[in-house]
């Protein structure tokens, strides 16, 4: 599965090379509930299956809670925390599939460069990095 197929992307005049046996990383700043609920761990491999431009104001409050909830342990109690999301603006909704077919999403700020990059990565394997 992880052979030496190279993916060349042209972004802002630079050519970047990736090898599937050394996957690109997708970083998460917390161990989000959406990852824990489907057993996605640091170091797991996932496939990017879509990258959509969205207006964040169009997302429901339920989706925003799903996307931004993480837990911490303070004062001997588990507590829900929410990563602060902007109220307005253009974002990318990235949709991933785990090796066992489970789906999860993440939201990232949108720029033309990021949109081109993620669209070029659709179908590619990425390594999950959870920075906690």
Describe the structure.
The protein is an alpha+beta fold and 132 residues long. The chain has one domain (24-130). Helix content is 17%, strand content 47%. It has 3 helices and 9 strands, in the order E-E-E-H-E-H-E-E-E-E-H-E. Strand 7 and strand 8 form a beta hairpin.
Principal-axes geometry comes out as globular
Which class best fits the helix and strand makeup?
alpha+beta
Distance between the termini: 29 Å
Order of helices and strands: EEEHEHEEEEHE
Mean pLDDT: 79
- Give the count of helical stretches: 3
Overall number of domains: 1
- According to DSSP, the number of beta strands is 9
Largest sheet: 5 strands, mixed
**Cα gyration radius (Å):** 16 Å
Q: In which range does the helix fraction lie?
A: 10-25%
Strand content: over 45%
The low-confidence parts are 1-18
Across the major sheet, the strand order is 3-9-4-7-8
Task: List its salient traits.
132 residues; alpha+beta; 3 helices; globular; disordered N terminus
Give the structure's gist in a few sentences.
This protein is α+β, with helices and mostly antiparallel strands and 132 residues long.
Topology, element by element:
Blueprint: E1 6-11, E2 14-19, E3 24-28, H1 33-36, E4 45-55, H2 61-68, E5 69-74, E6 77-82, E7 90-98, E8 103-109, H3 112-121, E9 125-130
Parallel strand pairs: 3-9
Antiparallel strand pairs: 1-2, 4-7, 4-9, 5-6, 7-8
């Amino acid at each position: 599965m992880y052979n030496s197929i190279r993916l060349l992307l042209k972004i802002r005049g630079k050519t970047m090379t990736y090898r599937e046996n050394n996957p690109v990383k997708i970083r998460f700043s917390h161990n989000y509930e959406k990852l824990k609920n489907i057993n996605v761990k640091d170091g797991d491999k996932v496939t990017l299956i879509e990258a959509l431009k969205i207006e964040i104001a169009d997302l429901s409050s339920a989706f925003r809670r799903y996307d931004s909830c993480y837990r911490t342990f303070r004062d001997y109690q588990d507590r829900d925390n929410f990563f602060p999301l902007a109220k307005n603006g253009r974002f990318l909704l990235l949709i991933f599939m785990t090796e066992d077919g489970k789906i999860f999403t993440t939201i990232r700020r949108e720029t033309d460069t990021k949109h081109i990059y993620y669209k070029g990565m659709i179908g590619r394997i990425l390594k999950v990095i959870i920075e906690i």
